[in-house]
Design a protein that fits this description.
Rossmann fold, alpha/beta, single chain, seven-stranded mixed sheet, 252 residues, globular
Length: 252
Amino acid sequence: MANSKIYPAFFARFYDTIYDHVRDATDHQYFMQKIMEAKGPVLEIGTGTGRFFLDALNQGADIYGIDVSPEMIKILENKLPEKEHHRLQVQDICTFKLDQKFDLIIAPFRVFMHLLSVEEQRKALNAVYTHLNPGGIFIFDLFIPNLKMLHEGLDQKKDFEGEYEPGKILKRYSSMWADLINQISHVTFKLVWDEDGIEKTEEWKTDLRFFFRYEIEHLVNRSELKLVNIFGDFEEGELNKDSKEFIVVCRK
């Protein structure tokens, strides 16, 4: 079975087109501010095609990136001068090993939700701990479970339509059903696009682990990291009934 954490080539190809539209305004300012405030080197886990990495590097940050998906790293390398390729590696959050330590490590946009088992989650937290300087910070985000959506699921919901090249339309449809006992959302993304007059369709199935507040607290406290806070939005507001995000901040 293919690793559902690894983005396939067709999805990586259209990643920027989709997520510049559906995600960038949500978290870009927050993570960029944290990166630029860091006094030492920064590591982005799940760097993807460079949504934060490129801006940070262009603004002078000493940033490095890892991603489990070779196709995503390949796209990002094509955006960079060759002298900067040393900053990127294909590695997994659970097992990564680098020759330096960092003042800030981030795992934005649900990276941690691809870790389905407690064993994987603890390995990831402890690998991060190993790569932080004393006092270093780790930040990751998760969505707060929407119980109604988890109960009802999604069936072929069109959540993106736009041009990926002039005159060429791309559509994305999302489906999901939740295993409530194991806290896993089984997600299928279907992309439909025009390829020189021919309609192409591909599907990618991936699983996401959803979390609840005190579960996160217990998980971090079982690792070597110390929990600083769990915020409810990207303005670091308190968790409340209207919160849609867990912003988890940890320290070494």
